[in-house]
Amino acid sequence: MILILEIIYFMLNILWWVILIQAVCSWLIAFNVINSDNEFVRKVVYTLDQLTEPLYRPIRKILPDFGAIDLSPAVVLMVILIVNQFIIPQMVSHIYMMPFHGFTNGDV
User: Fold this and answer.
1) pTM of the model
2) Per residue, what are the HEC states of the chain?
């Protein structure tokens, strides 16, 4: 069970960085710092959008429209933060506090 929680923690950290990189890329494109006509930039942005869009879509349905400001990445980052900082550590501490019932009296 601990291994599964560690994998979830690791994958959420990777997702955290993907969302941050995607947000920074979108800002750099919006302010014309990087050229979206570049093939490499276009492929990177497309890949990042494909990875993050399934996470953003349900949140965008719930959040009101703020015009050009998209708050769905911030919501996803807050959820990841809550899961990684509060939920997973609580689950791990609960697992370590559970008594082990794997052996009977004569098996030790």
Assistant:
1) 0.81
2) CHHHHHHHHHHHHHHHHHHHHHHHHHHHHHCCCCCCCCHHHHHHHHHHHHHHHHHHHHHHHHCCCECCECCHHHHHHHHHHHHHHHHHHHHHHHHHHCCCCCCCCCCC
